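User: Teach me something about this protein's shape.
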Amino acid sequence: MDVPEKPWLLAKKTWLGLTRPSSAVLLVALTLLALSWLRSNLAVLDSADTIGTGRMNPRSCSGFYSPGRPRRVVSSIEEFGGVGDGTTSNTAAFRKAVEHLAAFGATGGSQLNVPAGRWLTGSFNLTSNFTLFLEEGATILGSQDPKEWPLIEPLPSYGRGRERPGSRHISLIHGDGLTDVIITGNNGSIDGQGRMWWELWWNRTLTHTRGHLLELMNSNNILIFNLTFLNSPFWTIHPVYCSNVVIKNVTILAPLHSPNTDGIDPDSSSQVCIEDCYIESGDDLVAVKSGWDQYGIAVAHPSTNIIIRRVSGTTPTCSGIGFGSEMSGGISNVLVEGLHVWNSASAVRLKTDRGRGGYITNITITNVTIDKVKIPIRFSRGSNDHPDMSYDPKALPRISGVHISNVVGVYVDRAPALEGIKGAVYEKICIRNITFRGLSHQAKWHCEFVAGEAFDVFPVPCQQLRSNGSSSWCRHS
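Assistant: First, the predicted structure itself:
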């Protein structure tokens, strides 16, 4: 295994994203208390008006998930021939179990328990009105045989596999067209054992796009809660064309050099809640997406109404929160609050390109803590990354209404870099109450083709963001 199973016990890790534990014993104690509370069972959380009530707690967006009836049938993977010895293949057992339990979907649903042990398996699909429950000490292991990750059609909004043309490998745990699905447990683990796939990428011998660890498509009313996800071959958790998705109290770990192991990527999805998650990965901690160039434009399925709260982690080459670069179907109405990022390339990044089209609008990012980050806030362009040569280079993105406030950074290498695209709209950028300690007074922002305002910012912002006095729309927004 490439990473520790219990990262919250390491002295210099923070789970809730408030601060690094080494800075204050009191905050460590508070963090541990929060962990204990959040890891209590779902019934307790229901009574606390968070998960399961259908009502919105102002401190939580977990009301996006509304529970159905209690599961009528509960079975163990062992009943279907499963063996948790870490070497016996359980692919047939998982597929048989889900197929059997799907019959109870219309009469109360079902739950599949995975006991303590190491359960090796290839890809398997979930069903509706279903709970996958990993008991304490349970680990689902991804098969090392690529044939046990079958090929499926590319996503319509991508037009091809994201890495290679044509079809793509299915995710380890997959679902399409489902409703009321819970994936949870007593902090069990799902380990993709992704090194085999990373080596194919590094060696340039990858034939088809790698599979995700968990992907749900065209589904609604999803709860992913209280689990650890390890070593994904590619993006870790990928809800696409989904609605009413809650991802809460999740730890995601992959080696920091592992390629494209994004943590959570809501893609062309709405009513998504991501809360109280700790992520270490080789790519963005969270990346909001909505399709790729002309395919995303044609499908026109935006990502909207997304709340991301209390996420913390590190990624040495990428971002804490990324928007895009695949954003051609549009991204709107996103709140990011309580983000803590350290030892990373950037904290917040908007990534676009010619040919993308689409829009990123009505984005609020607030209460961000940054430690040892190269470029804290970045708008980037020009990756020249397209599915094929049929994209329209005149399809330009529109960026409007991006509000970033209450940001503190220490040991920051450079001032923010906001690089728009000539001819595209980058407007109503509002930057307020931001301080990057350690930068000299001579440090300069780099801005091109953007327009907006800034207040109470150090170092002094670029000319394109200078305020217009007391009449400013940004100062009181």
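Now, about its shape. The mean pLDDT is 89. The first helix runs from residue 25 to 38. If you'd like, I can walk through any region in more detail.
User: That's plenty for now, thanks!
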